[in-house]
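Before the break, one more example. Copy the sequence into your notebook; we will annotate it together after we see the structure.
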Amino acid sequence: MKKIRVFCGGLLVALSTISTLSFADPVWIDVRTLSENLRNNIPGDIRISHSNIVREVTKLYPDKSTEIHLYDKTGGRSDIALSALEREGYEFVTNEGSIEEAKQKRGLN
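Here is what the structure looks like once it is written out:
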């Protein structure tokens, strides 16, 4: 826990205790196979097979408050990956469904 003081016009207006926050950009992960990713992908997103998700994410993003968005072909493998990451303690993981839905949510269509 961290204490934060909020100043407004030089005056202390709030003192609160909050959990450590992550202000990094959200992470988007394609959990499909390499061959699927090579045929159709979102540039800049990383690809980690759903079966390796915990091992790779804990190495790349050890902060459990990292915002993580998962997608695959239909959302099924993303659900498996989401459950594994939540069991590992990741707090902000979302299944975005298919790659097409992930593109649409980000205005990439």
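Residues 22 and 66 are 6 Å apart (CA to CA). The helical segments are 34-39, 53-60, 76-87, 99-105. Try to locate both features in your own notes.
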